[in-house]
Amino acid sequence: MKKRHLDILLEKVEGFRSPKPDKEQYATPATVASELLHFAFMRGDLTGTVYDLGCGSGIFAIGAKLLGAEKVIGFDDDRGVLEIARANAEKLGVDVEFVCSRIETVCGKADTVVMNPPFGAQKKGSDRPFLRKALELSSVVYSIHNANSAEFIKKFISPSVITEYKSIDFPIKRTFGFHTKERQVIKVEIYRIEKRIEG
After folding, report:
1. Which of 36, 104, 116, 123 has its CA 20 to 30 A from that of 77?
2. Residue 98 domain-assigned (yes or no)
3. What are the beta bridge partners of residue 187?
């Protein structure tokens, strides 16, 4: 499937109905989701089992299934959002499992983890539990972070490594009362992380 076609399909995914600022519930734009997913797909990382951590309304999980992943599970601790995710999967005709779970209690094994963790704008370091858990669950992780986070991420994930990354624009629509612009574009980086074990 071409990236543009994936963009069009993912545009149909409904976002958050009542987003919570403390959870940094920003809808991932279809263009950003398809960029990460196509990146993973072109490297052969969307086969087998894929986990989407902090899946929100399911855009990564649904996209991974559309691109041929065998089994996809999305995890989030917000029951209301998971209802939207299930409806989105049904609308796009894909079979994705959604599980209500806090990030710390997610368990199992995946071939690949995809995620857009909180950037830490509301609570510093809120992406760390996601990185930690992702590397516990899988040996390949695709994750979105603020631009210029590479040095911190490298140190945090060591001995695991960033094998490749892409810089892209992430448009954020006005979502919360404290937003002053209708639309703001921030620079982000998509990292492909590979688990390495010391010794």
Report:
1. 36
2. yes
3. 169
